[in-house]
Amino acid sequence: MTIRIDRRNFLMGSSALVAAGAAGVMPSWAQAQNLRLIFWGGQARADRTYGVTDLYEAAKGVNVEGEFLAWNDYWPKLATQTAGGNAPDIIQMDYRYIVEYAKRNAIAPLDEFVGGVLKLDDFDQDQLEGGKVDGGLYGISLGANSVALMINTTAFEEAGVAAPTRDLTYDDVFAMGEAFNAANIRGGMKVIMDGSGSEPMLDNWLRQKGLALYTAEGKLGFDADAMTEWFQLWSKMRDAGVCVSAEDQALDTGPHETTMLVMGKAAMMPSNSNQLVGFQAVMQDNVTISSYPRLAAGVGGGHYRKPSMFFSVAGSSANKEAAAEFLSFFVNDPEAASVLGVERGIPCSAAVREAISPALSAQDQIALNFVANLGDLLGPLPPSPPAAAGEIDISLLRTLSQEVAFGARSPEDAGPYFVSEADAILNRA
Fold first, then answer.
1. What phi, psi does 43 have (nearest 5°)?
2. Cα distance between residue 381 and residue 379, in whole Å
3. What residues have CB less than 8 Å from 21, skipping those under 6 apart?
4. Largest pairwise CA distance in the chain
5. Which of 233, 332, 335, 368 is the most exposed place for a label (fewest CB within 10 A)?
6. Domain that holds residue 199
7. Whether the predicted pLDDT of 30 surpasses 50
8. Has residue 19 got a pLDDT over 50?
9. Closest of 288, 250, 285 to residue 269, by C-alpha
10. What's the Cα-to-Cα distance from 353 to each of 95, 120, 245, rounded to whole Å?
11. The CATH number of the domain where 45 resides is what?
12. How many structural domains is the chain composed of?
């Protein structure tokens, strides 16, 4: 049976292992080959992941020790583990961080295993390219997804407001916000969370302007004027009561349960298409997805199909080949695919997509159809973010967005400051 780690089980297991070692006897699982796996996500993702690790254990006789954390907790722990040379064998990796981890040799190139234990013949080429750094393959895409608005359709019905479509514009968001305020449902639910600190939403908005979050050279793809305009947009929404207050938005610490959508404070929030399953799992209201707002009617190109996440192998792993074999099973085995569905995105193997499509749930079909039919919203996949992108997102964008929201900085001050500080971070990275 797959070992699942939470804090209580870890402490109990550690005590038992120490006691066994003192007696000169090691538990049977310690004598067999073991793999350690770490990933971010909620319970819905964990249930599906552990379903696959159980299948793998039954098929291969390999114990897979799994651990999952919320997004905000995941990266500090992973950074500590990799710095200490104690990273799990298999690491769930994000597109924005893969360059940084590859450059530091924290994750290993997988090319030597391709065609052997790692079968990728049926993989979408664009998804393979997304996992490459300097020509080497460092991550295996677990699914293709796109940014998407999570929409509480039950709340829209209560407010008497038509739910958003793919034609939604930012002006429409303002109009919907006014309608929600007039309806005053659920103690003053707003139409949308504060998206000013959302890197994916900023990225989408910039792309619609013909700009970019980052260039292929790893520099900012926009200037201070654009960043000032971004903060001004959300300040107007905040002042008009269209988005949630600064005080409410500060309650969002990362897990689904603390988001404005799940807490019932906003009817929409920016997320990713593959997150629909996870949000619905923790909500009684009906949830669906649609596109991010357009700058104006007919403006598209902001979305792209990106690897939702990767599995990578730790550079420090002593079991790289065994880990690569597990990755191959995870993305290719039909039974595993039926367990996973599209919770991590649309499968990257055409054969796997064909195998699971008839059995997908209604919500899984929504996610698949959304990503497959982006139409004029679709633009090209941007280059992988530079190594410092994570620091800019967490330490700069999110911090500045809160400072503007609470009135500590004006948008006119925050825009130039962001660009200046981001440039400095990129230059020293």
1. -65, -35
2. 7
3. none
4. 72
5. 335
6. 147-305+378-428
7. no
8. no
9. 288
10. 22, 14, 41
11. 3.40.190.10
12. 2
